[in-house]
Design goal:
It is a single chain. The longest helix is centred in the N-terminal third of the chain and has 31 residues. This protein has one domain. The chain is built from 6 helices and no strands.
Length: about 140
């Protein structure tokens, strides 16, 4: 393996770790700062059902943890793309810059792009990869 290829897997790892951490922090923000009822109310104000708030919190926490651990990384990252595109939509009326009142759409759009990159390139180094019994559950005969 060449030196540049060696560096690439470490870059993949760094991107995976930072993206997973960011997703988890956003999920925890919804739980501990905005609170779950507050998040449900916010989603309701956007015209979304309460289940969308719960699914978003779940997706950020579970998806972020899977990505952080390098567990089914490509799948977990791909599954976060709709959440992040939804966040981009939710902030689209606030302008481009995320420092705008109520946050603009630049940051969630950037995270959606990172999700695409992580889904395409995979976990990098120091990843769990998969869990045997889960793989066997979904194995085709």
């Amino acid at each position: 393996m060449s030196t540049s290829s060696n560096h690439s897997v470490y870059a993949q790892t760094l991107l995976r770790l930072s993206f997973g951490t960011m997703l988890i922090s956003h999920g925890l923000l919804k739980v501990f700062v905005f609170t779950v009822p507050g998040t449900v109310q916010f989603f309701g104000g956007l015209g979304l059902p309460a289940i969308a708030a719960y699914a978003t919190i779940f997706g950020e926490l579970v998806g972020g943890t899977a990505i952080l651990l390098g567990l089914y990384t490509r799948l977990a990252a791909a599954l976060t793309i709709p959440l992040l595109l939804g966040a981009t939509w939710a902030h689209s009326g606030n302008g481009w810059v995320f420092s705008s009142p109520n946050g603009g759409w630049e940051y969630p759009a950037y995270l959606a792009l990172i999700a695409v990159v992580v889904a395409l390139q995979g976990a990098g180094k120091f990843a769990i990869g998969s869990i045997g019994f889960i793989d066997r559950l979904f194995k085709r005969s």
